[in-house]
Each structure stands twice: as structure tokens, then as C-alpha cells.
Amino acid sequence: MKVIHPLEPIYDSNSKILILGSMPSVKSREVGFYYGHPKNRFWKTLEKVYKEQIGETKEEKVAFLKRHHIALFDVLKSCDIDSSKDQSIKNPIANDFTEILNHTEIKTIFTTGKKAYQLYQKHCYPKTKIEAIYLPSTSPCNCPKGIEEKLENAYKILLEYTESSF
After folding, report:
1. Using CB atoms within 10 A of its CB, is residue 11 exposed (0-12), middle (13-18) or buried (19+)?
2. Cβ-count burial of 18 within 10 angstroms (0-12 exposed, 13-18 middle, 19+ buried)?
3. What is the rounded CA–CA span in Å between residue 70 and residue 6?
4. Structural domain tally of the chain?
5. Which domain holds residue 42?
6. Residue 33 pLDDT > 80, yes or no?
7. What CATH number is attached to the domain comprising 60?
């Protein structure tokens, strides 16, 4: 099924890091916000890493991101995808990050999941010239034993980058 990215990027002029997924999941598209599946661990992982309650509303999540100078978007503008399965992505067309990068202080880009990393490196890195740092997927499809602790440990790098940017 052909999917066109329905969400606006979240950023402001103070953003220092950019986190990119591949494409919003079916549930994220339904709720109109990033990492919208109730079993996705993205927001819970950020709460643990930053030792701060984020809240449940879009407004609270956006405020958290801006408070920590984090921009959020996805690698793809459109693609053919079966449900929310990254491995099924075909015919990818990348988002253009020029506006975000020209209006922020972003120097570091993270990707959530292997597919987002691969797509970014192939379609975006040649234009941005900013090497991406891979972070494990927080998707409910990625549920090996001990994943919560592994995610928290991996995502601590975000805290290090946001704190070292000041």
C-alpha cells in the first residue's frame, strides 16, 4: 500500500539533535502522532533516560522534546509498505531535511531501527553529510528478552548528546 507521510516534523530553532524513524506506523497515522502505538516503547524509554515524566498528550510530548532540544521526524516522505512492517518497504522516497537543518542547530542525527538507519544512509546522508547514529527499534515487533534494559542503555546516548551540546 502506498503511504504518504502525514505528520509534520517537530523542531524549533533550539533543536540540537534529530531522531528519525522510518515511516509512521498504522497506529501513529491513526492517532496523528509519532510512536502512537500503545505498546511502542519510545516515550517510556525517553522517560527512563531523562528521568522525567513526559505525559500522554501530544502537547506534553512536544514540550518534552523542545525542552530537551530534540527534533523528531521520519526518513521517508512516502513508500509502499505492508501495514507497519519496515522490512516490507519498497519504492522509498526520502524527506528533505534542508529546512530543518537550516533553521536549527542540529549536528547529530539518530535513527530508530535498522531500516531507518539503512534508508537514511542510502537516501539522506549524501545530501546532509551528517552521519547517523543507530538506535534500536522501540517497536512492539522488537520484543526480545531484556529489551527494556537494552533500550534504556542504548538511548542514554541521547542524554549525553543533549547535555554536551550546551
Report:
1. buried
2. buried
3. 20
4. 1
5. 2-164
6. yes
7. 3.40.470.10
